[in-house]
């Protein structure tokens, strides 16, 4: 049994199957990179995992526990049992009126994850981990894009997600800042975190991920090791995508 199992996930918007029959598995501590053409469902997929959208079909299981079953939700109005996923957005989405430290502490404080002093210590540790120890009291608009994205990563980690998802975490950044953010993701990988990264950074996907999924027309058209996906693409769609 895989650590994360996604079975038959589907999502419709206005009668269109934006996602359908998405099957994926991932082992603990692995990075899955999700690649694919624009507008074919990558963000929607991450939003479904994070329950920012409710999937219309499918089952999500983590460590053998069913987190979500669309049939149960429909039949009994049963909500997802808990939040197992965290999400780092493309455009950071930090709260501009709060410092880095306040941004990182907000969600665990609201969720009553611990005493204030304890949460503060944890937040400062995370901020140091992403290399922002000297920026804890800074406001987002005084930080570079790469620093803002690293603060957003610390904020997502503060909720202690089982699986951390990233939606094109570097697409708003220039190459130097991109490297800073990818280095943080590599560090998290060394710590054994399980991650799903939607990315256009093919170099990163090839070198840092354990599995790569190619999402095309709302479903997983190919899934394999970086070697299989990049050296031996089977479908015409993936061959075309990699050429472009
Ligand atoms: N809330 C919504 N209502 C209606 N349609 C939506 C909604 N969200 C997404 N879609 C549609 O779903 C499809 C997939 O969008 P999505 O944002 O998941 O693509 P993507 O693969 O992340 O694209 P990109 O690489 O450009 O970020 C698009 O056709 C989009 O217009
Ligand atoms: Mg997207």
Pick out its properties.
binds adenosine-5'-triphosphate, 9 helices, alpha/beta, six-stranded mixed beta sheet, single chain, four-stranded antiparallel beta sheet, 244 residues, binds magnesium ion
Structure report:
The protein is an alpha/beta fold. The chain has a domain at 96-160. Helix content is 37%, strand content 26%. Strands 6-7-8-3-9-10 form a six-stranded mixed beta sheet, with helices on both faces. It has a four-stranded antiparallel beta sheet with strand order 2-1-4-5. It is globular and about 50 Å long. The N and C termini lie far apart (36 Å). The mean pLDDT is 94. Magnesium ion is lined by residues 42-43, 167.
Runs in which pLDDT lies below 50 for 5 or more consecutive residues are: none
Bound compounds, each kind once, are: adenosine-5'-triphosphate, magnesium ion
Radius of gyration computed on alpha carbons: 18 Å
Principal-axis shape equals globular
Topology:
Blueprint (H helix, E strand, L loop, with lengths): L3 E10 L2 E11 L4 E5 L6 H8 L7 E6 L2 E5 H7 L8 E4 L11 H11 L5 H14 L15 H13 L5 E5 L7 H16 L3 E5 L3 H7 L2 E6 L2 E6 L1 H6 L4 H8 L1
Parallel strand pairs: 3-8, 3-9, 6-7, 7-8
Antiparallel strand pairs: 1-2, 1-4, 4-5, 9-10
Helix pairs in contact: 3-4, 3-5, 4-5, 5-6
The chain binds adenosine-5'-triphosphate and magnesium ion.
């Amino acid at each position: 049994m895989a650590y994360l199992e996604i079975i038959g996930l589907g999502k419709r918007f206005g009668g269109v199957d934006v996602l359908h029959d998405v099957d994926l598995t991932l082992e603990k501590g692995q990075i899955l990179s999700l690649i694919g053409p624009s507008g074919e469902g990558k963000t929607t997929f991450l939003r479904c995992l994070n329950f920012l959208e409710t999937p219309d079909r499918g089952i999500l299981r983590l460590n053998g526990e069913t987190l979500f079953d669309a049939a149960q939700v429909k039949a009994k109005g049963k909500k997802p049992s808990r939040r197992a996923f965290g999400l780092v957005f493309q455009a950071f989405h930090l709260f501009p009126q709060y410092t880095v430290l306040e941004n990182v502490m907000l969600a665990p404080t609201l969720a009553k994850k611990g005493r204030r002093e304890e949460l503060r210590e944890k937040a400062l540790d995370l901020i140091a981990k992403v290399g922002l120890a000297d920026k804890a009291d800074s406001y987002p608009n005084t930080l570079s894009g790469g620093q803002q994205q690293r603060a957003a990563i610390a904020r997502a980690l503060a909720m202690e997600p089982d699986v951390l998802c990233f939606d094109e975490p570097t697409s708003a950044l220039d190459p130097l800042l991109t490297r800073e953010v990818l280095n943080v993701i590599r560090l998290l990988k060394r710590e054994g975190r399980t991650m799903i990264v939607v990315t256009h950074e093919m170099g990163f996907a090839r070198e840092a991920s354990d599995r790569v999924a190619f999402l095309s027309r709302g479903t997983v058209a190919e899934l394999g090791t970086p070697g299989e996906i990049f050296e031996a693409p089977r479908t015409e769609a993936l061959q075309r995508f990699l050429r472009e």
